[in-house]
Amino acid sequence: MTIPPYAELLGLSIEPGEHAPTLVMPFAMDVVGRPGFLHGGAIGGLLEMAAITALEQALATQGGGRFKPIGLTVDYMRGGRDKPTYARGTVIRLGTRVANVEAIAWQDDPDNPIASARTNYLIAR
Amino acid sequence: MNEDDARTARRFDPKRLFEGRFAGHGATLGIEYHNHGADWAELALPYAQKLIGAPATGVIASGPILALMDMATSVAVWLKLDLFKPHATLDLRIDYLRPARAGRTVIGRGECYRITRSVAFVRGQAHDGDPDNPVANVAATFMAVEGYR
């Protein structure tokens, strides 16, 4: 999978998964907000990339398709510290015209996320 | 007092905040100061290759616009307080009304319309040239760990 320039800016690497890939974002100055903590925008961007890659994988099993983001809601639960951050999306519903996708970001334990997102996409098959 | 004097009489200066910054996510994205008022701030996100999310069209990813709006609304809180207070985004909702056109600078305007003891409520819009034709709409809240007042 080739990654777009913005994903490179975030430093993302992609680990394949059965239902959706897991994205890894190293802690680096490029994604820092206040000193010692990840920027909320970088966490939001990571969650969006996780949702997008999960949807791409789900669409690929159905012959592919293009999609556009409609909206995104992010909940920030704890500060992102100086360690790698992981994120994975889950396609909640893949309809003919709309997909609902959730994503979580975590550092130590996926059951203890630092942030989560709900996002909707318009699909053009 | 004219508008410039009114600005310099204030304690929190967002322009200085961005001039003094040299590293971090905002600097990497190229986000700059644009304009501000008593409870609002406008930041600029100039178009750049490294922001692209869709290489086929050259359209920038939605993540940088989310970061732009997170920062513009955050600065709006400090303007309304007229004080810098460490705080964190609690939640942020963004609607992507249309893609930003390739090559255009995106302007993000954030406004703080209410601050309670520990939560600040903000809203904002982003556009790529015409404020009446926005690319994104945002509603968010921030929380100050030690309280806003």
Offer a concise description of the structure:
Chain A has two helices and six strands, in the order αββαββββ. Chain A is α+β, with helices and mostly antiparallel strands.
How does this model look, in words?
The complex is a heterodimer of chains A (125) and B (149). Chain A has 125 residues and is of the alpha+beta class. Helices cover 21% and strands 38% of the residues of chain A. Chain A has helices at 5-9, 40-60; strands spanning 13-15, 22-25, 66-76, 85-94, 98-106, 115-124. Chain A has a six-stranded antiparallel sheet with strand order 1-2-4-5-6-3, covered by helices on one side. In chain A, a hairpin with a 3-residue loop joins strand 4 (85-94) and strand 5 (98-106). The model of chain A has no long low-confidence stretch (mean pLDDT 96). Chain B is α+β, with helices and mostly antiparallel strands and 149 residues long. A six-stranded antiparallel sheet of chain B has the order 1-2-6-7-8-5. Chain B has a two-stranded antiparallel sheet with strand order 3-4. The mean pLDDT of chain B is 93. Chain A: Residues 36-111 form the Thioesterase domain. Chain A: Keywords: Hydrolase.
Helical proportion of chain A, percent range: 10-25%
**Strand line-up of the largest beta sheet of chain A:** 1-2-4-5-6-3
N-to-C SSE string of chain B, H for helix and E for strand: HHHEEEEHEEEE
Count of folded domains of chain B: 1
**How many individual β-strands of chain A?**
6
Distance between the termini of chain B: 27 Å
The best one-word shape of chain A is: globular
Domain Thioesterase (chain A): 36-111
Pfam families (chain A): 4HBT
Keywords (chain A): Hydrolase
GO molecular function (chain A): acyl-CoA hydrolase activity
